[in-house]
Amino acid sequence: MKRAVVIGLGIFGYHIARTLFENGFEVVAIDKNKEIIQKIRDYSTKAVLADGTDQDIMNEIGIGENDIAIISFGEDLAAATLITLHLKQMKVKNIIVKAPNEDHKLILEKVGATDVIIPEMDVAKKLAKSLISPNVMDYIPLSEDYMIFEMAPPNSFLGKTLAELQLRNKHNIEVIAVRDVISGKVHMVPQAGFVVKDGEVLVVIGKEGDILKIQ
Predict the structure, then answer these.
(1) How would you class 111 by CB atoms within 10 Å of its CB: exposed for 0-12, middle for 13-18, buried for 19 or more?
(2) CA–CA separation, 32 and 137 (whole Å)
(3) Partners of 97 in the β-ladder
(4) Which helix (DSSP H) or strand (DSSP E) does residue 1 occupy?
């Protein structure tokens, strides 16, 4: 079973811990606020009332190198940096830290964070993309240029085969899967004769600009 250690249980940390626990992870939740610890007890394997910056306590908890460590301290860069350093010394391979801005992200990466996320920025980008192109539902960046998008097919796609749509030639995108919204069934790598229907979501790969042009 995978184990995650979540240090700092604000809104972000609490919901990360709870979601991981409800999806089969072993979760150790750490915070120095007694009320929050009481709240997370039913949604964690172990809830620890402690100061995450205390290296002795971290050693006692026994965080292993294969654990996933998630640090969420809001604007407190000093605390997030100190804990990241401690975890790096403990040879933890996967250290994910929440940061409020790009400056903090650069510092945390320098001291050993393997992944730094800025939730507000990510949400803002997703909201902006949904407003620019309403049929785009979600996306995963692959590189600076290419992304995997989930998109609701425009009305002009419905009832047509992938061959008829010529998405590669006309839009420079490739359909890699189709998901039925009601049943949840996924059709991987559909053939040219696949007919696009209402109630389906297209999973496509391509450049962001090309995908966002499709209305």
Answers:
(1) middle
(2) 38
(3) 71, 116
(4) none
Reduce the DSSP state of residue 95 to 3 states and report it: strand
pTM of the model: 0.66
* Residues 58 and 78 placed together within one structural domain of the fold: yes
Query: CA separation (Å) from 5 to 25, 44, 107, 111, 145?
Result: 10, 10, 22, 19, 33
Question: Dihedrals φ, ψ of 74, to 5°?
Answer: 60, -125
- Segments forming the whole domain that contains residue 104: 3-118
The CATH number assigned to the domain holding 137 equals 3.30.70.1450
One-letter amino acid at 186 equals: V
Angle separating helix axes 77-89 and 102-110, nearest 10 degrees: 20
Number of domains in the chain: 2
Q: Looking at the structure, tell me whether residues 90 and 34 fall in a common domain.
A: yes
- Residue 29 CA to residue 40 CA, distance in Å, equals 7
Average pLDDT, 10 consecutive residues per value, the chain (215 residues):
92 94 94 95 95 88 91 88 93 93 91 90 66 57 76 89 92 90 86 92 86 72
Phi-psi region of 189 (alpha: psi -120 to 50; beta: other; left: phi over 0): left
* 166 backbone dihedrals φ, ψ, rounded to 5°: 50, 50
133 alpha carbon, distance to own chain's centre: 21
The CATH number that applies at residue 106 is 3.40.50.720
